[in-house]
């Protein structure tokens, strides 16, 4: 019975993601992009959740791992000539590297995970306010370095001509894989120990739990997943700039997680898909769309205001999010 | 029994589902001194915090001169005439003695007579005059306790709550504190006194309730101060 | 030699402005344990108020600016009330959201392209003192900063409400037990923070008249860095930290070669991380206390 209950907890988010993937493939070309975008966002948000949801520590810096993953995947799937024309000073090893699409995603995950591991070793002793500020610092530093160090990437210029290989199949399978890994982690001994420690740090320390080490594990895993999502991201857009993986994305993904519910995988998925949906709707409304018999045309910028307002309201009045931070439960089962 | 100045009725306090106080009732008549003793964790401090509005009771009521206090803000309760001398004194070490005292004035209903009350407090507690402009952190434990009581007094309370005033003090110093408390009692202030070192409370209060595990076990009078069995019960709550 | 002196004087001016902002952040933190990420939006609001009253007499413009900033600060006090008992991470994320919301509102209302607030342009002219050519705004910033900081110090030390604010910052619970009115003290802190922010805005707008939706946000991030680096727990160390960051940013901006300058942010934020790891209480505090242990 228990196993059946926990299977539901995974099945629900996976089913929802699969549904979105399936439904999206039947829509018109212009809308298809929005659906795939939503799935990639979900992957990023799940990655974020793996750390924040289990450790109770806020990280503003996860988009750094998305960024390095995106650039790693992007730089290894464009022709050398293009890379050198963008940044003549590029390290030869980066310039000459060229891998297939699948490999680029693996590489993105590896780079993200490694970077997160190193950052984690430095920062995971911090909690609360200090952690928030320190991870924000990581975000700024990563952006600053990527933007200006032309030996490792295109700097401020757009890296384009990246193969747009994130099809519906890739996006859906990719995000479901991320969800499964997130679920396996939170069910594992490590994940449960970390979550328990976040709820009662003194009891945990008393039981000999090394919170520092557990946090590093969660951080590195979430970094790898974020990097992977970054790979999906760059292959969705076909190009990438440093501004696309900076403050706006950081805010958006955090908002998605918070609105959905920080404490559960279900919350992460629901938040990401719901906010993406509203986001897309408002984006279209800004261009002026017809909703049946009514024409909706809102001024540009309404989207961001709405998003910000919703996030602020949720944080003030229902900080546990729409799902209340709970996983899906079948009535009667534990 | 004179009119109850302070009344606690069927008070239940829970911290996240764990009961700390399981339904106690007591009355403190006008001008009376009532003691509350018992082992650590018995719920004594929780009771005082609930009276002050810092902790919301799960059930029950607290009445000041017939008016209910539950649900009101701490600032309103202080202004209503209840002052607490907290456990561990909790004076502000980086503020001067004078500044500490002036903070106590915030609890007054009106500014009138503030200077007189300060003078009276200074008369009762010499440390205030002696160390007026010094930082409260340099005072000894006994002096800090005096300051804490003075600070509560200048709010002109009708009811004074004290949470373990003897904590960490040598017996001679405790004597001085209780001498001052006796004078405060002379002035007609109603007092509810929480103590872990039961002998101080039992000998001083009109009656003393023994609290253990969130419930009242027995009630002692000053006559019981010499009774070893009863005093043991007071300490260990058996 | 004169170049160095010039740089230092400019740095003191920028430091003064940052100090005012840092002090505002520190005041609110002291009474509420809240780091207001949205503090910068007070500056943006004031700056846009100056933009909108460009064509009106100076006095009107300044009045509107102050009214706007203080009004927004009071609105924030009300909005943040549900947060009073929240854990610090919830506070952090919420103020981050409010900051984003207000920036989005500014973007919606004014567009992404900058607008000019041409206020007190005469202050941009320079006066010669010996070999130095110093702009009036630099001198005014330093003077105003000094006056305001001294004024605040006096206010906190001599007035009743100042005493209450100091006590609340030291031990909020005990202050409450003494009858200190929590809401009144917090509201006062926000108002004072607003006043300081408004003054800082006026000084900033003179030197940097181009106002964009992220005008204040870009400033508050280094100021926040300064507050954390200086020492969040105490008002003096927080203010000093703000001053230090402003000073350092100005000096480094002048002194660094062009290609090094782009990494200024990195250097600054690496410093923040190091301070948080090594001396979480802050650089300018006496003890090595950390806010949280686990």
List the helices and strands and how they pair.
The complex is a heterotrimer of chains A (334), B (238) and C (294).
Chain A: H1 2-25, H2 29-55, H3 62-75, H4 80-86, H5 92-96, H6 101-123, H7 128-148, H8 168-187, H9 189-199, H10 201-206, H11 211-237, H12 247-260, H13 265-287, E1 289-291, E2 294-296, H14 302-317
Helix pairs in contact in A: 1-2, 1-8, 1-13, 2-8, 2-11, 2-12, 2-13, 3-6, 3-7, 3-11, 6-11, 8-11, 9-11, 12-13, 12-14, 13-14
Chain B: E1 4-15, E2 18-29, E3 33-37, H1 44-52, E4 59-64, E5 67-68, H2 74-80, E6 82-85, H3 97-104, H4 114-124, H5 126-130, H6 141-153, E7 159-163, H7 171-186, E8 190-195, H8 198-204, E9 207-212, E10 215-220, H9 228-236
Parallel strand pairs in B: 3-8, 3-9, 6-7, 7-8
Antiparallel strand pairs in B: 1-2, 1-4, 4-5, 9-10
Helix pairs in contact in B: 3-6
Chain C: H1 2-32, H2 39-52, H3 58-79, H4 88-110, E1 115-116, E2 126-129, E3 132-135, H5 136-158, H6 160-170, H7 172-177, H8 182-207, E4 210-211, H9 215-230, H10 235-255, H11 258-261, H12 264-278
Antiparallel strand pairs in C: 1-4, 2-3
Helix pairs in contact in C: 1-5, 1-6, 1-8, 1-9, 1-10, 2-3, 2-4, 2-8, 2-9, 3-8, 5-6, 5-8, 6-8, 9-10, 9-12
Summarize the structure.
The complex is a heterotrimer of chains A (334), B (238) and C (294). Chain A has 334 residues and is an all-alpha fold.
Search tags:
A: 334 residues, mainly alpha, 14 helices, globular, B: 238 residues, alpha/beta, Rossmann fold
Structural summary, described in words:
The complex is a heterotrimer of chains A (334), B (238) and C (294). By secondary structure, chain A is mainly α. Chain A is built from 14 helices and two strands. Chain A has one domain (9-245). Helices cover 71% and strands 2% of the residues of chain A. In chain A, a hairpin with a 2-residue loop joins strand 1 (289-291) and strand 2 (294-296). The longest helix of chain A has 27 residues, at 29-55. The relative contact order of chain A is 0.18. The mean pLDDT of chain A is 86. The mean pLDDT of chain B is 87. Chain B has nine helices and ten strands. In chain B, helix 3 runs parallel beside helix 6. By secondary structure, chain B is an alpha/beta fold. Chain B has a single domain (4-236), classed as 3-Layer(aba) Sandwich (Rossmann fold), CATH 3.40.50.300. In chain B, the strands form two sheets. In chain B, strands 6-7-8-3-9-10 form a six-stranded mixed beta sheet, with helices on both faces. In chain B, strands 2-1-4-5 form a four-stranded antiparallel beta sheet, covered by helices on one side. Chain C is mainly alpha-helical and 294 residues long. Chain C has one domain. In chain C, 72% of the residues lie in helices and 4% in strands. Chain C is built from twelve helices and four strands. Chain C has helices spanning 2-32, 39-52, 58-79, 88-110, 136-158, 160-170, 172-177, 182-207, 215-230, 235-255, 258-261, 264-278, and strands at 115-116, 126-129, 132-135, 210-211. Chain C has a two-stranded antiparallel sheet. In chain C, strands 2-3 form a two-stranded antiparallel ribbon. In chain C, a hairpin with a 2-residue loop joins strand 2 and strand 3. Chain C starts with a helix and ends in a 16-residue tail after the last helix. The relative contact order of chain C is 0.19. The model of chain C is unreliable at 288-294 (pLDDT under 50). The chains are: A mainly alpha (334), B alpha/beta (238), C mainly alpha (294). At the B-C interface, helix 2 and helix 3 of B face helix 6 and helix 7 of C.
């Amino acid at each position: 019975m228990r196993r059946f209950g926990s299977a539901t907890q995974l099945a629900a988010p996976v089913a929802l993601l699969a549904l979105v993937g399936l439904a999206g493939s039947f829509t018109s070309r212009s809308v298809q992009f929005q659906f795939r975008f939503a799935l990639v966002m979900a992957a990023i948000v799940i990655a974020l959740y793996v750390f924040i949801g289990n450790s109770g520590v806020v990280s503003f810096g996860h988009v750094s791992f998305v960024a390095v993953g995106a650039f790693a995947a992007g730089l290894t799937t464009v022709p050398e000539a293009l890379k050198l024309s963008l940044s003549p000073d590029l390290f030869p090893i980066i310039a000459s590297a060229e891998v297939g699409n699948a490999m680029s995603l693996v590489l993105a995950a590896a780079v993200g995970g490694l970077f997160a591991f190193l950052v984690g070793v430095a920062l995971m002793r911090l909690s609360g306010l200090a952690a928030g500020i320190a991870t924000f610092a990581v975000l700024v530093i990563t952006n600053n370095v990527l933007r200006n160090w032309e030996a490792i990437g295109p700097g401020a210029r757009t890296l384009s001509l990246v193969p747009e290989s994130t099809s519906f199949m890739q996006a859906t399978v990719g995000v479901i894989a991320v969800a499964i890994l997130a679920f396996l982690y939170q069910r594992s001994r490590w994940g449960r120990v970390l979550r328990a420690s976040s709820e009662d740090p003194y009891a945990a320390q008393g039981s000999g739990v090394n919170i520092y080490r557990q946090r590093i594990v969660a951080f590195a895993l979430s970094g790898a997943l974020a990097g992977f999502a970054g790979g999906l991201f760059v292959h969705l857009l076909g190009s990438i700039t440093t501004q696309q993986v900076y403050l706006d994305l950081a805010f958006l993904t955090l908002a998605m997680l918070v609105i959905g519910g920080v404490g559960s995988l279900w919350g992460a998925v629901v938040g990401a898909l719901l906010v993406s949906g509203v986001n897309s709707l408002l984006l279209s409304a800004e261009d002026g769309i017809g909703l049946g018999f009514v024409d909706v045309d809102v001024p540009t910028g309404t989207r961001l205001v709405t998003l910000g307002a919703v996030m602020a309201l949720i944080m003030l009045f229902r900080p546990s999010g729409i799902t209340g931070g709970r996983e899906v439960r079948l009535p009667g089962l534990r | 029994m004179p009119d109850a100045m302070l009344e606690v009725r069927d008070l239940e306090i829970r911290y996240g589902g764990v009961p700390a106080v399981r339904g106690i009732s007591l009355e403190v008549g006008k001008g009376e001194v009532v003691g509350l003793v018992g082992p650590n964790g018995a719920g004594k401090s929780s009771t005082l915090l609930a009276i002050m509005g810092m902790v919301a009771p799960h059930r029950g009521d607290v009445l000041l001169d017939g008016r209910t206090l539950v649900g009101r803000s701490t600032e309103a309760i202080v202004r209503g005439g209840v002052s607490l001398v907290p456990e561990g004194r909790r004076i502000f070490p980086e503020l001067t003695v004078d500044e500490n005292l002036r903070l106590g004035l915030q609890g007054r209903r009106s500014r009138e007579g503030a200077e007189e009350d300060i003078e009276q407090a200074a008369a009762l507690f010499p440390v205030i005059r002696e160390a007026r402009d010094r930082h409260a952190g340099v005072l000894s434990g006994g002096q800090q306790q005096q300051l804490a009581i003075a600070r509560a007094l200048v709010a002109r309370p009708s009811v004074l709550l004290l949470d373990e005033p003897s904590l960490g003090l040598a017996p001679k110093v405790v004597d001085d504190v209780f001498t001052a408390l006796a004078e405060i009692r002379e002035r007609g202030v109603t007092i509810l006194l929480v103590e872990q070192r039961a002998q101080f409370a039992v000998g001083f209060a009109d009656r003393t309730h023994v609290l253990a595990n969130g419930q009242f076990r027995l009630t002692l009078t000053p006559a019981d101060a010499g009774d070893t069995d009863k005093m043991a019960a007071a300490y260990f709550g058996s | 030699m004169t170049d160095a002196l010039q740089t230092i004087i400019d740095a003191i001016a920028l430091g003064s402005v940052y100090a005012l902002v840092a002090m505002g952040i520190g005041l609110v933190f002291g009474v509420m344990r809240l780091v207001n990420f949205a503090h910068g939006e007070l500056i943006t609001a004031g700056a846009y108020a100056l933009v909108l009253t460009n064509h009106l007499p100076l006095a009107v413009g300044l009045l509107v600016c102050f009214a706007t900033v203080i009004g927004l600060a009071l609105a924030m006090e009300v909005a943040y009330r549900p947060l009073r008992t929240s854990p610090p991470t919830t506070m952090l994320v919420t103020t981050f959201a409010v900051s984003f919301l207000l920036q989005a509102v500014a973007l919606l209302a004014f567009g992404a392209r900058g607008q000019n607030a041409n206020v007190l342009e005469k202050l941009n002219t320079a006066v010669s003192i010996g070999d130095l050519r110093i702009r009036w705004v630099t001198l005014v910033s330093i003077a105003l900063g000094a006056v305001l900081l001294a004024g605040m110090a006096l206010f906190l030390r001599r007035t009743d409400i100042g005493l209450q604010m100091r006590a609340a910052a030291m031990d909020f619970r005990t202050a409450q037990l003494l009858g200190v009115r929590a809401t009144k003290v917090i509201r006062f802190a926000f108002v004072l923070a607003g006043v300081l922010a408004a003054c800082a805005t006026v000084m900033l707008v003179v030197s940097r008249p181009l106002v964009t939706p992220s005008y204040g946000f870009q400033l508050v991030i280094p100021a926040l860095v300064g507050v954390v680096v200086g020492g969040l727990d105490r008002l003096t160390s927080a203010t000093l930290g703000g001053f230090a960051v402003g000073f350092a940013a100005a000096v480094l901006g002048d002194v660094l070669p062009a290609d090094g300058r782009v990494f200024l942010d990195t250097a600054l934020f690496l410093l923040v991380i190091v301070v948080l790891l090594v001396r979480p209480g802050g650089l300018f505090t006496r003890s090595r206390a950390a806010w949280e242990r686990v």
